[in-house]
């Protein structure tokens, strides 16, 4: 009998030890679905940064996380339909990478939580009531795009100190473009340079815009933040090189495509941090109770190959400030 008792005890002990292992081996009980609406073609590095942030919080794509991507590919008119499509999928959270995308999502739903990433002017564009108390179903981070425009002009001036006229390429369809233009005008007056504004609502306007820059004898080019410009960054970089114009942009992808400089909020950092918002919302937090985060990490990236093509010798004082120098 005592052998039977020992056998029973061993069986129970083994069962207790095996239980946690069996539970650990079980697939996740709930799969979270995240909808992402981008202004450009999917696959940008900052999306991978978001997934890195999610993995650090215990979410693994294909296990307890499903990503639904939609991209307007620089075409503003596609945002409303794409946002509505993600809403119909009944995703748990919507992620927005640009102001036009976020506005489309806001019109598409008042119930699904929306996390915006690096928005240019979330209060002024009507996305949130305030940074501290966003209200509604939207929260996330501000990109401070209008605020960095002045610094972008300073860097262009450092590259070409004698420049007296700077061309500014902007998209009137962008709801925050006018604010960025006003900030650029204030900075230009302080720097003693004249701005030559050139509007482009689509890539078909690029050739005429660059022809106008040449006619106006512009000495440098500021390309304002816009998903359409980001989508066509390689073509813009090529046109700038042909026109012998040093350029500055707001994201690293422009410089990697052949632009000279970029200065702005670190997009990978913002997308990685956005994962914490998604995690809190999936665990029950309401967007209205999550303050909008201001950026803390900015980056200056320089393409030395482009500088050589343009015949520019960049000052050491500028190079030492760069976070990344592309040889």
What's the quick description here?
The protein is of the alpha/beta class and 327 residues long. 43% of the residues lie in helices and 19% in strands. Strand 9, helix 10 and strand 10 form a beta-alpha-beta unit.
Quickly give the structural class.
alpha/beta
- Overall 3D geometry? elongated
Helix content: 40-55%
Q: How much is the average pLDDT? A: 91
The total count of helices amounts to 13
* Strand composition percent: 15-25%
Major sheet size, sense and barrel closure? 7 strands, mixed
Instruction: Give the total of beta strands.
Output: 12
Uncertain spans: 1-28
Write down the secondary-structure element order: HEHEHEHEEHEHEHEHHEHEHEHHE
Report how far the terminal alpha carbons are from each other: 80 Å
The strands making up the biggest β-sheet line up spatially as: 7-6-8-9-10-11-12
Radius of gyration using CA atoms only: 24 Å
Q: Would you write up a description of this structure?
A:
By secondary structure, this protein is α/β, with parallel strands linked by helices. Helix content is 43%, strand content 19%. It contains 13 helices and twelve strands. The protein has helices spanning 2-25, 45-56, 79-88, 99-108, 145-159, 177-191, 206-215, 227-231, 233-242, 252-256, 267-282, 304-309, 316-319, and strands at residues 32-38, 65-71, 93-96, 114-119, 138-142, 165-170, 194-199, 220-223, 247-249, 261-265, 298-303, 324-326. The chain has a seven-stranded mixed β-sheet with strand order 7-6-8-9-10-11-12, sandwiched between helices. Strands 2-1-3-4-5 form a five-stranded parallel β-sheet, with helices on both faces. Helix 6 (177-191) links the parallel strand 6 and strand 7. The longest helix is centred in the first third of the chain and has 24 residues, at 2-25. The chain is elongated. The model is unreliable at 1-28 (pLDDT under 50).
């Amino acid at each position: 009998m005592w052998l039977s008792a020992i056998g029973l005890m061993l069986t129970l002990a083994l069962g207790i030890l095996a239980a946690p292992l069996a539970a650990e081996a079980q697939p996740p009980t709930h799969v979270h679905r995240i909808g992402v609406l981008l202004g450009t073609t999917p696959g940008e590095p900052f999306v991978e940064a978001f997934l890195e942030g999610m993995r650090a919080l215990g979410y693994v794509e294909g296990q307890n996380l499903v990503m639904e991507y939609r991209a307007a590919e620089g075409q503003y008119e596609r945002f409303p339909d794409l946002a509505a499509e993600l809403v119909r999928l009944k995703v748990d959270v919507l992620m927005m990478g640009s102001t036009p995308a976020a506005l489309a999502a806001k019109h598409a739903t008042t119930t699904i939580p929306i996390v915006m990433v690096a928005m240019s002017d979330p209060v002024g564009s009507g996305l949130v009531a305030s940074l501290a108390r966003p209200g509604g179903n939207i929260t996330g981070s501000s990109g401070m795009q209008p605020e960095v425009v002045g610094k972008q002009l300073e860097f262009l001036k450092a590259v070409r100190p004698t420049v007296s006229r700077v061309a500014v390429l902007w998209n009137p369809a962008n709801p925050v473009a006018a604010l960025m233009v006003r900030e650029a005008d204030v900075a230009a007056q302080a720097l003693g340079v004249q701005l030559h504004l050139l509007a482009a609502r689509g890539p078909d306007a690029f050739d005429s815009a660059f022809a106008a820059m040449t006619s106006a004898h512009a000495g440098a080019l500021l390309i304002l933040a816009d998903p359409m410009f980001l989508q066509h960054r390689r073509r813009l970089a090529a046109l700038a090189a042909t026109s012998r114009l040093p350029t500055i942009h707001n994201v690293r992808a422009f410089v990697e495509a052949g632009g000279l400089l970029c200065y702005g909020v670190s997009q990978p950092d913002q997308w990685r941090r956005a994962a914490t918002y998604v995690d809190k919302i999936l665990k029950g937090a309401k967007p209205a109770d999550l303050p909008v985060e201001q950026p803390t990490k900015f980056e200056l990236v320089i393409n030395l190959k482009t500088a050589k093509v343009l015949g520019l010798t960049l000052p050491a004082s500028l190079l030492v400030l760069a976070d990344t120098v592309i040889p």
